[in-house]
Amino acid sequence: MINFDYLEANKEKLREEYLNAKPFPNIAIDNFCDETKLNALVDNVPDIETKSADYAFSKNKFEKSKIQEIAPEFKEFHEEMTSDRFKELLKYITGEDVFVDPDLYGGGIHQGKEGSFLDMHVDFNYHPLKPTWYRNLNILLYLNKDWKEEYGGHLKLEHSMTGEKTEIGVPFNRLAIMQCRGFTLHGYDKINFPAGKARLSMATYAFSIHEKQMESARTTKWKVDKSNPVKYILSKLWVPAVKVKSMFFKSKTGDH
Fold first, then answer.
1. Rounded to an integer, what distance in angstroms lies between the CA atom of residue 81 and that of residue 130?
2. DSSP code of 255?
């Protein structure tokens, strides 16, 4: 399904583009998959009913991480994304010793329905269930057929310390790879997709092994403008609230 021959033939160019990108290392790769197979995958995307656990910081965003049994195309996609061949490509392009989480914790199908948005945020660093796994990369394959700029839903990237920003469009068969750090803010504004169409992506995350934690573990941190005082206060309370919750309850994100 993945166009490995093309990627491997152009890995030097892809590496240079990724490492030199602003506001932090990232890249958008078009025609990532065989188009016929990816069309068959999209035709089998179910209507997802499990909402993201982002609460006030997102709207109408739904997730399903257990994808392998949906259809043969999903199984093939999962096998190739978690393969040694793709791992070696990722390592070369990004310069990071990484592997893709086979459980797709927090990943899989992401479906943004009518009016969906996702506030700017930085992701957790150490895996909530596997504390030696350090989250290095977000890998997002977009599945939006006939997407137009006016539909919105662009992947927004912002460096939290320098303020540098960019946006990546989300058309069908585009893969976005972005570095994941404490300063790598990302999200998307409220969408304006045609009625009945959702903002679709397949999310996978790549990790490295840290036998000892190299930095303090963090949960998702949200950036909210003070013009929305209620949400702003909630964003400041979010991290301590999640820490307290984690002391008593196991994460259920991977149950989807």
1. 20
2. G
